[in-house]
Design brief:
By secondary structure, the protein is mostly helical. The chain contains one helix and no strands.
Length: 53
């Protein structure tokens, strides 16, 4: 019982850590997309349409 409880706790911690990393990576991906589109539209091609950069 003691070993199983420890392994279950470690599994829960691992799942929680994975969820936090996934949320963080989603935020970084969104931020990089917004920054790259802003730089592209303002510097490289100011006449670009928002739908088709």
């Amino acid at each position: 019982m003691d070993i199983l409880a420890t392994e279950a706790l470690m599994l829960k911690i691992t799942v929680l850590f994975g969820a936090v990393m996934s949320s963080f990576n989603s935020g970084v991906n969104s931020l990089s997309t917004l920054v790259s589109l802003d730089i592209y539209k303002q510097i490289i091609n100011p006449k670009a349409d928002a739908m088709f950069p």
